[in-house]
Amino acid sequence: MTRNVLFQIHWFLGITAGLVLAVMGVTGAALSFEPEILAALNRDRPVAAGTARLTGPELITGVMRQRPDAEIGRLIVPSGSDELTSVTYRLKGSKERQFERLDPYDGTLLGEPRGGATIDFLEDLHRWLALPGGGNGIGRQISGFSAIALIYFALSGLYLRWPKRPLDWRNWLVLDFRKTGRNLYRMLHAVIGGWVLIFYCISGFTGLWWSYDWYRQGVRALLVAEGPVEKPKHPKDVPVDPTRAWQGFVHATGGRDYDRVTLIVRDHGEVQFRAKLPNGRHDRVSDELSIDGTTGQMIADKRYAARPVGEDIVTSIFELHRGAYFGLIGRIAMMLASLTMPLFTITGFLLYFARRRRKAALAEVVADTSAAPLDHATTLVAYASQTGSAERIARLTAAALPDAAALPIASLDPDQLSRASRLFVVASTYGEGEPPDNARGFARTMEREAPDLSHLDYAVMALGDREYAEFCAFGHRVDRWLHDHGATRLFDAVEADGTDADAQRQWQHQLAGLGGRTDQPDWAPAAMDEWRLVERRLLNPGSAGGEAWHVALEPVTAGADWTPGDIVEIRPQQDVRRVAAYLGASGLPDTPENRAMLMTSILPTGAGDVATLKPIGHREYSIASIAASGRIELIVRRCTAADGFDGLGSGWLCHGAPVGGIMQARVRANPAFHPPADPSVPLILIGNGTGLAGLLAHLRHRAVRGGAPAYLYWGERHQAHDDFLADERRALMANGTMASQQVAWSRQPGGHRYVQDAVAADGEHIRSAVEAGAAIYVCGSVQGMAPGVHAALSAILGESLLEDMLGNGRYRRDIY
User: What is the pLDDT of residue 723?
Assistant: First the structure.
């Protein structure tokens, strides 16, 4: 809760004060070296070799000679030619201040320094945004508010980005430019923010000095022991004699040499002298004396050597603000830190807009979907969301499943878990493997509570970022917690890298296999390519089960590449009979345009505007071929939909699409089912029905590449009709690709035997193969086959070993 509140304030101040701070940063960086810039543009040069620089009184005399009506307010007299000699004065009867260069060798007034107007504008922009009213206008208040915001950014940013391993310096200092997109923006924002944090704190706390009188008075009261204030001896506007005052200063200091002497005329006849000590690291390393401008007598003598620390800080606020308090290195560092302020504005806005897009996507889902009331839901969809992505997917999941309700994972309680029969969790990982803010309470619950969840079936979608070491860590933590407390995993956790479109479609496909809606459009659409249907062959003529077809596709234009285990996503079209029936029932005109639109759209339940229909979502199929073949081969079971017509995907591939015709498809990487990197790893391949396709790709790959042998366990209905690709499987046995194959026939006379029965019967062999390093691959139905095979493997190997194999990639499943 605390993190969320701090974050909300952080981004709100960012979008309100960010632009102001960017302006203040750039102008502040330019002003860091103001004296050097002006001196470089207005270099003092002697008129003749060996010419001596005039003293302060001599320069004053020269000014008064040229400007008899001038009232000198400030005179800066450096000892060397690398600084500007200047005078600020006001003519009698005028309130406007004049600022001019002085020739230090003959006292000639040279006019306003080159670049002076620009510097003045930058100062106005930096201090009060050059708004009307100057220091008494709204600009000063905006600057003060922005200084407070800067302090908040620094401190709250430190808290929000505090790493899991704070003692590892890499977390604080190292920039990883392999990151992209939001991760790059976040890294720049956080890491560089850590670099400049101390400088921004100094800038913010010192910047408030000029914005708020109460702040200035408070700091002064805290750091400086104020003595009694003496009553002025003269009226406020009493005329002063700068020459006499300078002579009094020389007498008081015994004619000591200084790097620079600045004369400043104050009220009540007081003239202050700020004399910078030789080689002082900043301007306020100075002796400061006050001289009576009418008599030349000393009023106050404050030597730097005797200045207390608190008074030194108060006296040097400006030097602290620009970094000069710490010498030249401090000024350079403060300048560079100031120049980074636009970076935080830019990255902050980029992150803000990305967050807004996610919120908009979530709002669209909330508006378009409905779910069962929480009290009556038998299926719960819990989400742990930081930016809205997980919540969006969770709500789409709840809309896809019957009797399902979405809720924050923090709302899950033992009573709800006891009533539910299925739980789907969509969990984001935040930072370095941490739960999102709204899931921290549930994370603590997982540490202290151990409920009995043996009645519960579950699945987890873990959202994370592969650019971070702890990819999807919190989602996997939830997955392990549910499994360890007795819940049954419906299918392996789906990992999503950010807003990974492939992972979202994979999750959507898994839901369809569990009875979820199949009439939804793709949650994360991606471009399709053109493929030609080049072959279609019935594999099981005369079978009492559903027709199984061998289907082959070839790319129309450029070739495609894939790895064994990858998936092809097909965009099907409607059964022409279903479209005709809909046209007849809805009363829509039976036109070629309407038919074409309906063939590629989800049909509504009644009449509607054809132009507003949503497109049909994809259907997924395991690829049986390898990329070297140049074509995608599938094994597709023709299914019948609830309305009596063919299922969308299977009907289109098995009957609807013409051989030689073009269809839309795309290959989706499925790294969770890729082959082992080491071909010497033996393979135990287990599946049923059309799941043979996913296993066959691995066998064909190993037949070409070589490697350790494979052991096949496969189940179908009847040997006489359903022995798919039997000749090829015998050939794979003959050439040594397969060391053995065991086929279970579930409708063979003499008793039902399923693939899990074949696995259980061959337990000793499987245990020996696993001990020798074999990997297990399971492909097929999530209903019946997958849990049955898992139970058999668990009995053979033990649940603990099976979980370890799942974690290290030696137990992989592609179930649907």
Answer: 95
User: How many residues are recorded in the chain?
Assistant: 816
User: Alpha-carbon distance 437 to 8, whole Å?
Assistant: 12
Q: Which residues contact 238 (CB under 8 A, 6 or more apart)?
A: 268, 269, 293, 294
Query: In angstroms, rounded to a whole number, what is the distance separating the alpha carbons of residues 554 and 533?
Result: 7
**Distance in angstroms (rounded) separating the CA atoms of residues 776 and 448:** 34
* Phi-psi sector, 107: left (phi>0), alpha (psi -120 to 50), beta: left
pLDDT per residue as tens digits for the range 432-461:
678 887 788 888 888 888 889 999 999 999
DSSP string, 579-643: HHHHHHHH-----HHHHHHHHTBPPPSS---GGGPPBPPPEEEE--S-GGGSSEEEEEE--B-TT
Which residue in 690, 734, 684, 752 sits closest to 713, CA to CA?
684
CA 35 to each of CA 74, 122, 401, 576, 714: distance values in angstroms, whole numbers, following the listed order: 16, 14, 71, 82, 84
Q: Encoding tokens for residue 81?
A: 């030619």
149-172 pLDDT per residue, tens: 999 988 988 887 777 677 777 777
- What CA–CA distance (Å, rounded) separates 752 from 110? 108
* Cβ atoms of residues 638 and 647 within 8 Å: yes
Q: Which residue has the tokens 């132009």?
A: 611
Both tokens of 119, joined, read 């510097």
Sign of CA dihedral 310, 315, 319, 320: positive
Euclidean distance between CA atoms 173 and 164, whole angstroms: 15
The first and second tokens of residue 585, run together, are: 């029932």
Query: What pLDDT, in 10s, does the model give residues 76-92?
Result: 999 887 788 999 999 98
* Statement: residue 606 has pLDDT above 70: no
CB atoms closer than 10 angstroms to residue 277: 17
The letter for the amino acid at 449 is E
Burial (Cβ within 10 Å: 0-12, 13-18, ≥19) of residue 278 = exposed
Query: Is the pTM for the entire model greater than 0.70?
Result: no
- pLDDT of 383: 92
d(Cα 756, Cα 764) in Å, to the nearest integer?
Answer: 14
Closest C-alpha among 116, 97, 89, 74 to residue 262? 74
Compute the mean pLDDT over every residue in the chain, rounded to the nearest whole number.
88
Q: For residue 322, what are its two tokens?
A: 């620009």
Compute the distance between CA of residue 518 and CA of residue 616 in angstroms, rounded to an integer: 9
Q: pLDDT digit string (tens) for 256-281?
A: 999 999 999 999 999 999 999 999 99
Helix (H) or strand (E) holding 634: strand 632-637
Phi, psi of 204 (to 5 degrees): -65, -50
- pLDDT for 524: 76
Q: CA neighbours within 13 Å on the CB side: how many for 344?
A: 35
218 touches 212 (CB < 8 A): no
Residue 669 has pLDDT above 90, yes or no: no
Say if CB 357 and CB 350 are below 8 A apart. no
Using the structure block, give the residue that is written with the tokens 């200045």: 307
Q: CB atoms < 10 A from the CB of 466, how many?
A: 12
Residue holding tokens 């050059």? 130
The pLDDT value recorded for residue 791 is: 93
Identify the three-state secondary structure at position 546.
Answer: coil
Structural tokens at position 217: 């008075």
Distance CA 129, CA 27 (A): 10
**Helix 2-31 crosses helix 138-160 at what angle (to 10 degrees)?**
130
Report whether pLDDT(711) > 70: yes
**What pLDDT, on a 0 to 100 scale, did the predictor assign at position 364?**
60
Q: How many CB atoms lie within 10 A of CB 767?
A: 16
Retrieve residue 460's tokens: 């987890």
pLDDT of residue 9: 83
pLDDT digits (tens, 9 = 90+) for 539-575: 999 998 889 999 999 999 877 899 999 999 999 999 9
Identify which of 675, 712, 666, 692 has the alpha carbon closest to the alpha carbon of residue 780.
692
Number of Cβ atoms within 10 Å of the Cβ of 177: 8
3-state DSSP assignment of residue 297: coil
